[in-house]
Specification:
Oligomer: single chain
CATH topology of the largest domain: Glutamyl-tRNA Synthetase, domain 3
Distance between the termini: 29 Å
Number of strands: 10
Helix content: 25-40%
CATH superfamily of the largest domain: Glutamyl-tRNA Synthetase, Domain 3
Bound molecules: glutamic acid
Strand content: 5-15%
Number of domains: 2
Shape: globular
Length: about 300
């Protein structure tokens, strides 16, 4: 029988905090309970924000928490060729469009539309939806850039992608979405517009690399924070287009601060390193994130 495969996939762009501890420990507990494997993946595609000292701290914090993972650890920054191959396949199928508008130009166009009383669509995270350079730049400027400049980004043409995907997409959710959704969830990827697959400065994107890696590593169970629940729709679309199987998803509750906000990587006093320096034990961290002490004494 194939053993279930779990992964914890942090980005080394800050120190791990209590929210990461919950995610990592849930992955470890569930892998153990299922007789499965636990992988650690370093999601370091953003070379400007990721730093070696944050990566070293991730290893230290996770070891201190008592986690054991398989070697070798996959670093996304060493596998850009895998994401490029997946992207090239989508390009060959005519599902990718180059876009020439910068982030600033897109933001300005949305702000101007909103100021003029024309609401601009937002994705489930509240970010501006992009659906074509035409909404952002004058036609002559688009033509000029097409003739000369390299595109700012390569994006998935969501209309063509949905047509190519065929049927409605679903995923199996064993956790819950923000409104308590559980069980068989219908994916709504169109809500994200034409998502970025690669940028001028980064040759892949979070969505593309996470889906390619989950497929290549044979991940059967994705356990991660509820903030990624809605994005799973995009992941299911990419999995279908790339011929990859769907893992089972478990989106867990988020740990919030006193004002009810999700913890951020700069959340000093909830950083695991800071708590450890103040004398906290791994058992106390488990208790603080609401997990029973299954592994007490380890
Ligand atoms: N690297 C992502 C993060 O640190 C997590 C990706 C995932 O679990 O799918 O938020």
């Amino acid at each position: 029988m194939n053993r279930p495969v779990f992964r914890f996939a942090p980005s080394p762009n800050g120190r791990l905090h209590l929210g990461h501890a919950l995610s990592a420990l849930l992955n470890a507990d569930r892998a153990q309970a299922a007789g499965g494997r636990l992988l650690l993946r370093i999601e370091d595609i953003d070379r400007t924000r990721c730093r070696p000292e944050f990566e070293a701290a991730i290893f230290d914090d996770l070891r201190w928490l008592g986690l054991h993972w398989e070697e070798p650890v996959r670093h996304q920054s060493r596998h850009f060729a895998d994401y490029r191959a997946a992207l090239d396949g989508l390009v060959r199928r005519g599902l990718v469009i180059p876009s020439f508008a910068s982030r600033r130009e897109i933001a300005d166009a949305a702000a101007a539309a909103q100021a003029a009383g024309r609401p601009w669509p937002r994705d489930p995270d509240g970010a501006i939806v992009f659906a074509g350079d035409e909404a952002v730049l004058p036609a002559a400027e688009i033509a000029r850039r097409r003739a000369g400049d390299a595109p700012m980004a390569l994006r998935l043409d969501h209309e063509k992608a949905l047509a190519a995907a065929g049927d409605t997409l679903f995923w199996d959710e064993t956790g819950a979405g923000p409104c308590g959704q559980s069980g068989r969830i219908a994916a709504l990827p169109w809500r994200w517009g034409d998502i970025v697959l690669a940028r001028k400065e980064t040759p892949t994107s979070y969505h593309l690399s996470v889906v390619v890696d989950d497929g290549l590593q044979g991940i059967t169970h994705v356990v991660r924070g509820r903030d990624l629940f809605a994005a799973t729709a995009v992941h299911r679309l990419l999995q279908r287009l790339l011929g990859l199987p769907a893992p089972v998803y478990h989106h867990h509750r988020l740990i919030v601060d006193e004002s009810g906000r999700k913890l951020s990587k700069s959340a000093g006093d909830t950083a695991l390193g800071a708590l450890r320096a103040q004398g906290a034990t791994p058992a106390q961290i488990r208790a603080r994130v609401g997990l029973a002490n299954l592994t007490a004494g380890r």
